[in-house]
Amino acid sequence: MQKRECLTAIFGGIAVIGASVALFQAQPVVAQAQGSAAVFTPDGRLKIPEGFRRWVYVGAPLTPNALNGGKANFPEYHNVYVQAQNIDAYMKTGEFPEGTVFVKELTRLLSPTFPDGSRTEPSGRGFFNGPFNGIDLTVKDSKRFAKTNGWGFFTFGHHPLPYEATAASVAECAGCHIANVAKTDMTWVQFYPMLLNRTAGWDTPQSR
Amino acid sequence: MRIIWKALIAGTFVITGVAISQTNSRRGPVFTKDGDLVLPTGFREWVFMGGPITPNSLNNGEAPFPEFHDVYIERENLLYYQHHGNFPEGTVLVKELVLTQKGKYPDGSVDSASGRGYFPSELYGLDVMVKDSKRFANTNKWGFFTFGHKAPPYSSSTKVMSKAECASCHIAGVAKTDMVWVQYYPLLHANLR
Predict the structure, then answer these.
(1) pLDDT of A8 over the 60 cut
(2) B123 CB near a chain A CB, below 8 Å?
(3) Could you tell me if A77 and A106 are in contact, meaning their C-beta atoms sit under 8 angstroms apart?
(4) Mean pLDDT of chain B, nearest integer
(5) A60–B68: do the CB atoms touch at under 8 Å?
(6) Which end of chain A is more exposed for a tag (fewer CB within 10 A), N or C?
(7) Interface ipTM
(8) CA B93 distance to own-chain centroid
(9) Which CATH number fits domain A36-195: 1.10.10.410, 3.40.250.10, 3.30.750.24, 3.50.70.20?
């Protein structure tokens, strides 16, 4: 190989690597600038955000069907996820930023054997996660959802996988959030231990 | 010209090195010189696998693990399990315990807007298991650790637990599924990201 060709190849290689590094770093910046995992279709329906199971899990209330007349409003585990940057903002300001998405994924209980829905396992008597069983979701968008305190509510079905791909906002959820948690930005922060003490960090094991 | 060449080649290696270090974020376990496990950090940003709950009130007031058991794994190790059916060397599983809100019912449940059930209140302890087939050959490749069943702060490092304390129950119950109670973690079965 001639020296000139070799040099050209090296320059080309650097350009390719440089461009890929720039792309690699630029993507999250673009996503942050958009500021939201909420993606709407042209007719205003919301898509299930990709990758939400990699977001931060903040807590899982459990309302067993067996303790709720056989039919809990949200059967049965409510696994709640939110993105780390939105927790950071909440810890600083006490409010979630515009575009914040909370995903609540439901799971059924693993084969109950007691009337209350529990079963006995080597770790004791209690409740254990069964199959996935639905997704509900809230989005903060104070213009789009001005009538419901700045948050929109969506359900993608209370049933096993697969879920609906898109959903229109529903009105019946907001009333309960407004009645109970309007003062904490429409979010049940009392059920999420990591969010309770805003003066402490949330992501290190020595904080809460 | 020769110097410029060398600089360019060195620069290429540096840039490539940066790119590799950015994509390789997996941390794995950290041990002290004495073989104690250092408290893992950042695990609340790992993937949540599931949260069995054994309420104290359903276990004579003193469950072995009070009460929610929130289990976390690093994503790379989750994906590896989905493909291979076992966990790679260096896998760390973290189980953080969370108490429930005090309920008015004898079973410990409480009425809330969403119904009667169990709701998290305070963080209350941390247990960890680490896969290292050489270090923990006597306990089926996994070492078991507890950093305390109490409110934070947790211990900053801790010794491995004896075989009788943790490993024996895993060996008896889940030796065939790489010592992990995979039946409680729907994400391990669903082949989802």
Answers:
(1) no
(2) yes
(3) yes
(4) 89
(5) yes
(6) N
(7) 0.85
(8) 2
(9) 3.50.70.20
